[in-house]
Specification:
heterodimer, A: about 475 residues, mainly alpha, 2 domains, about 0% strand, B: mainly alpha, globular, disordered C terminus
Chain lengths: ~475, ~190
């Protein structure tokens, strides 16, 4: 018998209800602004109406992110507290709303109503600017990922950049400036120490983080997040975490073995693995390398966003609260909001780069929905019911729906993992942190980069 | 309809120059603040503003990759290291400008004049090759190919220079190992 079944039930109910609220709200706004208003204005002959509909289409990605970030942060704080309660066998939040489901909404209102204090001797302009610099890049950074996580939906294509992942990385490197600025401007020793630690840590761990992403880009041959996500479609064997496409040939060979209609297996294997045993070694090396890279990415990301084994900038037992000691009211709320948003964005990058984006983990030959015998009757039953929603008013887009569902599942699983790590590991010491970053992670990623560059020569990718 | 197209054409032509002036209005005051601000750490933060505005200029010129590299390496990486070094050496000292020797002043003026002359001559020179090729959104490929073919030698020299600087920094920062060896040795014995 599970001892804390009641807590698990509460967590599941909470997650399901909040996630429904979040994503219905986000998609509702997107549909309203990106589809309904342009459709209503489409027949209008006024130039002004055309301009309005174009503007509406252009700001849809921005609006989606702006609606998503505050609600999502509220949910993630609540989820973190619930999950930590689960791990430590305590009662989580349980006063506001059913089983504490509205706790963070109450907290948010409280924070917004509190007095905003600027300490004496603080540099007022910098003090105000710091939370903004910390928060704004997470909005910019999230936008190019939208097209990748929604299976290249028409609404979000405008935000798809050719330098996609590089843009996201550049944007996510900015927040540390906000931390240092806030730490310095507060006129407080603890804040200054927090800011200094944060800068040293972020610069050190950015190198392995970026190198691991670069290696995946080398495998994919592109920086564009949408094409990286597309390349990985077709089940777990195609995902970047398993060799970055090195197992695609195996996937195809199994599919050929199952259905006798396709090309013979030997031919498939010959196409993908042309050098015999050398290719075999290449596949093994690539699989090992990408799994290690995924681990390195998670470590680097954890350090970059100051999650707990790496939360030296706000180590509460040493530095009171680190860089945000002096902050109160809405400025503190913005710091808090940005931290959780960064956790979500980092998880989304991991999902897009390593875990196949919006792709079902089951390989196509194992997935019952991919066989005509199953999906034709299903569509026959469902189409009369859903045709109004899908074809007439475009309220549901099946491609986007399934992709978004898988992305949500994978991303929040990674968030859950981050909370698990937080509940498990103690904090690093600063010298251990630096040694681990510079003497372990950087050399490992460099070696892996060279290995991958050679190993990808003996396999045919994405034929 | 025609008016609308005229308007969009006008907007397209003018948005670039408008953005140029906007970025200049951010970059130039920030640059002056870097020079004249009393608190040296605030100067460091203004430097971040300058680099940010310059990356905006790259964005106007359709050089997305360069703009992002500018933000990632200069605006965040290098400037932050400088700011940390400043904080560690004289944390939050709004030091009065002590009396500077006149000889130092002249030396500074000379360096500044020479630097200005170099930049000015470089900007005024005629040899700015203009390519008539259509600008592509994805110019990462071109940059990579150029770095490893036409500009391979400067690229390699730059990396050797950086490596030498890195080794020099490690050598400077390395502490004398003798004492610690003795201590551990005595503990083991």
């Amino acid at each position: 018998m599970i001892p804390n079944a009641a807590e698990i039930r509460k967590l599941s109910v909470l997650s399901f209800s909040w996630l429904t609220v979040i994503f219905v709200a986000v998609w509702g706004v997107c549909w309203l602004v990106g589809i309904l208003i342009p459709a209503l204005l489409a027949n209008s002959s006024f130039d002004f109406a055309r301009a309005v509909s174009e503007i509406c289409e252009a700001i849809t990605p921005l609006l989606a992110v702006m609606v998503f970030i505050p609600i999502n942060a509220m949910f993630m704080v609540l989820m973190e507290r619930r999950v930590l309660a689960l791990f430590t066998r305590r009662n989580g939040p349980n006063r506001v709303g059913p089983d504490g489901a509205l706790q963070t909404a109450a907290d948010a209102i409280k924070l917004l109503l509190k007095e905003d204090i600027t300490p004496t001797g603080a540099d007022a302009a910098m003090f105000t600017l710091a939370p903004i610099i910390f928060f704004a890049p997470s909005i910019f950074g999230a936008i190019p990922l939208l097209a990748a996580v929604t299976n290249n939906n028409k609404l979000f294509q405008i935000a798809d950049l050719p330098t996609g992942i590089f843009f996201v990385l550049a944007a996510s490197s900015i927040p540390v400036v906000g931390i240092v600025m806030g730490g310095w401007a507060s006129n407080n020793k603890y804040s200054l120490m927090g800011g200094l630690r944060s800068a040293a840590q972020a610069i050190s761990y950015e190198i392995p983080l970026v190198l691991s992403i670069i290696t995946i880009c080398l495998l994919a041959g592109t920086l564009d997040v949408v094409s990286i996500a597309k390349q990985q479609s077709g089940g777990i064997l195609n995902w970047n975490i398993l060799g970055g496409g090195a197992l695609t040939g195996l996937n195809k060979a199994i599919a050929a073995f199952i259905s006798s209609a396709g090309p013979p297996i030997a031919e498939v294997i010959k196409t993908y693995y042309p050098y015999g045993w050398l290719s075999l070694i290449g596949v093994i090396v690539l699989c090992l390398c990408t799994i290690i890279l995924f681990g390195i990415y998670l470590i680097g990301a954890c350090a970059e966003i100051n999650r707990i084994p790496f939360d030296l900038p706000e180590a509460e037992s040493e530095l009171v609260s680190g860089y945000n000691t002096e902050y109160s009211g809405i400025k503190f709320a913005i710091f808090f909001l940005a931290e959780f948003t960064n956790l979500f964005i980092v998880s989304t990058i991991a999902v897009v780069m390593f875990l196949g984006g919006g792709d079902c983990p089951l390989p196509t030959w194992l997935n019952p929905l991919s066989y005509p015998a199953v999906y034709i009757p299903l569509t026959n039953i469902l189409s009369p019911i859903l045709s109004l929603l899908i074809d007439k008013i475009h309220l549901i887009n099946p491609d986007t729906f399934w992709a978004a569902l898988w992305v949500i599942l994978k991303t929040y699983s990674l968030v859950f993992f981050a909370i698990l790590v937080r509940g498990t590991l103690p904090r690093f010491r600063i010298d251990q942190l630096m040694d681990f970053g510079w003497k372990r992670l950087v050399p490992i990623t460099l070696v892996i980069f060279v290995l991958v560059a050679f190993a990808r020569g003996v396999i045919n990718f994405h034929v | 309809m025609e008016q609308f197209e005229l308007l969009t054409n006008w907007a397209q032509a003018n948005v670039e120059s408008f953005m140029l002036y906007l970025l200049a209005a951010i970059a130039i005051p920030c640059a002056f603040s870097v020079l004249f601000d009393r608190a040296i750490i605030r100067s460091g933060f203004f430097l971040i503003g300058v680099f940010g505005a310059i990356s905006g200029l790259f964005l106007i010129l359709q050089a997305q990759f360069l703009a992002l590299a500018q933000i990632m390496i200069y605006a965040v990486g290098i400037t932050l290291v400088v700011v940390i070094a400043l904080m560690l050496t004289n944390a939050r000292l709004e030091k009065e400008f002590s009396s500077i020797e006149p000889t130092e002043r002249i030396g500074g003026l000379l360096v500044a004049a020479l630097f200005f002359l170099t930049i000015y001559l470089a900007l005024r020179s005629e040899s700015w090759p203009v390519s008539s090729l259509q600008m592509r959104a994805d110019n990462v490929l071109q940059i990579g190919v150029a770095l490893l073919t036409n500009y391979a030698l400067p690229f390699e020299f730059a990396s050797v220079l950086l490596l030498a600087a890195l080794m020099g920094a490690i050598l400077l920062a390395k502490s004398d190992p003798k004492e610690t060896e003795n201590v551990t040795g005595s503990l083991v014995e």
